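Morning!

As promised:
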Amino acid sequence: MGRVVLVTGVARQLGGRFVRRVQREPDVDRVVGVDVVEPVHDLGGAEFVPADIRQPDIASVLARHGVDTVVHMDVHGTPPTLPGTGSRSSVKEVNVIGTMQLLGACQKAPSVRRLVVKSTTSVYGGAPRDPAVFDESTPAKSLPSGGFAKDAIEVEGYVRGFARRRPDVSVTVLRFAHVLGPSVDSPLAAYFALPVLPTVLGYDPRLQFVHEEDAVEVLRVAAREPRSGTLSAGTFNIAGDGTLLLSQCARRLGRPTVPMLLPAIRWGRSLLQSVGATDFSPEQVRLLTHGRVVRTTQMREVLGFEPRFTTGETLAAFARVRGPGLLPPETLARTVDRLAAKVAPPPEEEPQDEEVGRRG
Amino acid sequence: MADAKVIPFGSPDDGYGRHSGRERHERHRQQGWDGGTGPGSGGASAGDAGADERTGRAGEGTETDADSSAAGGSWERTAAQALAFLRRRVTGEYEVDDFGYDPELTDQVLMSLLRPLYEKYFRVEVRGVENIPADGSALIVSNHSGTLPLDGLMMQVAVHDHHPAGRHLRLLAADLVFMLPVVNALARKAGHTLACSEDAAALLARGEIVGVMPEGFKGLGKPFSERYKLQRFGRGGFVSTALRAGAPIVPCSVVGAEEIYPMVGNAKTLARLLGFPYFPVTPTFPWLGPLGAVPLPTKWTIQFGEPIPTDGYPEGSAEDPMLMFNLTDQIRETIQHTLYKLLVRRRSVFF
């Protein structure tokens, strides 16, 4: 008898990709996708059930299909770009009330054996007093006071409560670093798409990314029976190897930066929003000030997952899709090379080429 | 072990540290230019294989460079190397670790900026740098003084330029450093991180040399009248961290930093308004404005002591408060004692 997987939030690109991927699992019989709006992308052979997870009728969906694995991906930072877009308060409602209802429904459904929840590394906050690298047990020194991070903290709180009440259900919480990829639409992706990146003067945050393929893959790993020697119940940080500084990201993307004073950014947020059409939330300002790096030892050793893309490769893949910025690194490199050819006599170019080759 | 404890105190080798340091630094720079990456960065960031490969390449490079310098193109070579560096910087093709440490920038820019201060202004004399292990982790515990944490930076230059294995010191800094704009970005790039047990343990687990000043602001902002009197060493958390990591503790004594800003007063109200732990009043600052912020050109000595091993203790010793207090006291005494010895030896504050 195969498994029945229910996925929430399938109208989003990442949810859709996961649904298409999980169908190919040999032991999965049926996949049920749930969202308020009909997804514009193809869900393959999955069944789409239009349902609002904020309403109690989600319980009947669980019972009707005999769902045993619930993958909760309807926890988001931004309103959907689809019709019926909501404000921040409606997003919060979906995140928090939706999770409460879904968990309540799961609790009453005896068939549910496994729950996977998508969360975020922003639950750690990020402040000067925090350790440089967070691991799963690091308590946040200053809790996020609002926005998506606070939602995620509340969601995780409800999930912990559920895990206590239903000890027979294997509960996995995946804290994702920033997911970037060709199709993912996140506030950070929108930020990197700006022609000129506003940064906080005097701060150079450290960032980590997850490629969307890795995100889908780790969700799949968490949603299946754990292989021997691995354990999927628990909380895991998910991030690609390595760390990039924001200045480094900007240079690799070929986008000039405009350092701005922190108070100016706070005051000029609405202005930036109207100009750059990006959401410059306090949360994002915080990220751009202090950055966030997580340790992924648990992911490797307990969950048994190795991401295919490093942070740098994820950014490179993202840059390829988005096209060059105003200052493409190739052009800059060529300019420097031309200068080098002028300054140094020809034999000198040889070691330099060799060196560039070695670097790349 | 007992033999190694003998440190040549009275020996008339005033120039010793500086000379060998400069030579070594030249060698570093040579390697750095030839290898294309910063000195020692291979050892810190890349694996052993990478480091080997780089050393091999550096060897090759020296030959070709010798040829070209014979042809008289040394400044062109320097320019080409600088442009190669520039090229990597503008395209973002360099690596930083999880803590934001940028070895290339530190080696080629930050250390070069600090070096004049180190060599010409404070004329730092380094002793016992070989007490820092050539490989594996170690915790350097030092006194802290001077109103501004220049002693930490000078220690970093000392280890960077003088250690035979070209090791890098990763300093643990106060949270204030990471609150200030510009300072926090530079500190992270120079390899500093927040003084907390998590970060210290993570760095020691990677086999890094970690530097800590347990006196903190108590030492840094103490009045001039209490110079060279070690303050309380926190709760000794650094000892338990080192014990858990099995890293030896290297006591370090810095003489000379106390007199760079003789702090005769503390404007507490102003400090509270600005959110600083103290606001120094020296004979020149704030009276002379920015000019008063110029440190006095004192003569410095940095003495690294004999490492204290921490690996012989039974399991769970790190949670034993009595043992922790005893070890902390032992280290504190060692540093204090060395400070007195160095002070007796010192001819003058400025020479």
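Strands of chain B lie at 125-127, 138-142, 169-173, 193-194, 209-212, 249-255, 265-266, 280-281, 301-304.

Hope this helps with the figure draft.
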